[in-house]
Write a structure and sequence with these properties.
Helix content is about 0%, strand content about 25%. The chain has a two-stranded antiparallel sheet with strand order 1-2. A two-stranded antiparallel sheet has the order 3-4. By secondary structure, the protein is mainly beta. It is built from no helices and 12 strands.
């Protein structure tokens, strides 16, 4: 894009989701980063990822096994829960998981109960 009245190719800059030199070719923003426009490429915070062509930090989502808001710091999922998309979910009744679990199937039945990973756990 370029401001109204632009007279030179170097007045053109890449729009959000793309990056490149002013007046040059624009490329899609690489995965695990975001590009607000121009020649700016910013990496997602640790333990998060984004799709190719992302425009802002809120496109960065915590990886499975981590919790946190979009574009903000990600923390290891606590024991007894599982995390996907940055959201913390409790293990089903009578089951438990190790810290950093990213799947409900990581929740296994506690002593005295039986069932598949992710529950339900019966006596």
């Amino acid at each position: 894009s370029s401001p109204a009245g632009s007279e030179s190719a170097t007045d053109c800059s890449c729009v959000a989701g793309f990056y490149g030199q002013d007046g040059g070719e624009c490329s899609a923003c690489p995965a695990d980063s975001f590009c607000p426009g121009g020649n700016v490429v910013e990496g997602c915070v640790a333990d998060s990822s984004s799709a190719e062509g992302s425009e802002s930090a809120v496109s960065c989502v915590c990886n499975d096994g981590f919790s946190g808001g979009r574009g903000s710091e990600c923390s290891v999922c606590v024991a007894g829960t599982w995390c996907t998309g940055g959201t913390i979910e409790p293990c089903p009744a009578n089951s438990f998981s190790e810290a950093g679990s990213g799947l409900v199937e990581d929740c296994t039945c506690v002593a005295g109960y039986y069932g598949p990973g992710g529950g339900p756990c019966d006596t």
